[in-house]
Amino acid sequence: KATVSVLYWRGGKKMSVEIVQVKGKAAVKIIEQIEQLEKKVFPKHEVMDVARESKKRNVVTLAAVEGGAAVVGYLLFCVRDSAADLIKLAVSTEKRGQGIGDSLLATSLTYMVKQRLTACKLHVAAEGRTPAQSLYAKHGFVTKQEI
């Protein structure tokens, strides 16, 4: 049974940003769209099983939905004890640069603070992901280790 938090967007402009819990058929449709976007955005070796991951009880899934129907971005993170691991953040290629990733990340960090989580970690490729690195730095992430 998938549970999805949905962040609503319209026309690339942030409307009333509302986080709601969606269950049942609506969640399944959103997860299907996220999986399609996952396959478009990431190389084959980086594609994950979003449906399986989102069903885990300690995973929170946020989706940026445009026009009440189309998923244009998503973020998954896992809560472990008093910290979180950001699993995946993606925005459709044609919607990049409109603040969607920024809003998804800010919303997830706000959730983490409200849940009194003390840290959030993530992994990002050192090469070829400069926009992602800049986004994370903007939100206070710092490099702890390069692998």
Describe this structure in words.
The model is unreliable at 1-22 (pLDDT under 50). Strands 2-1-3-4-5-6 form a 6-stranded mixed β-sheet, sandwiched between helices. 31% of the residues lie in helices and 34% in strands. The chain has helices at 25-41, 50-54, 100-114, 130-138; strands at residues 3-10, 13-23, 59-66, 70-80, 83-91, 119-121. The chain is built from 4 helices and 6 strands, in the order E-E-H-H-E-E-E-H-E-H. The protein is α/β, with parallel strands linked by helices.
Rounded mean pLDDT is: 80
Instruction: Give Rg in angstroms.
Output: 14 Å
Distance between the termini: 36 Å
User: Portion of residues in helices?
Assistant: 25-40%
> What would you call the shape?
globular
Proportion in β-strands? 25-35%
> Helices and strands: which structural class?
alpha/beta
Question: Strands across the major sheet, in which order?
Answer: 2-1-3-4-5-6
For the secondary structure, the number of strands is: 6
**H and E string:** EEHHEEEHEH
Main sheet makeup: 6 strands, mixed
Instruction: Tell me the number of helical segments per DSSP (H or I, 4 or more residues long).
Output: 4
Provide the low-confidence segments as ranges: 1-22
List the helices and strands and how they pair.
Elements: E1 3-10, E2 13-23, H1 25-41, H2 50-54, E3 59-66, E4 70-80, E5 83-91, H3 100-114, E6 119-121, H4 130-138
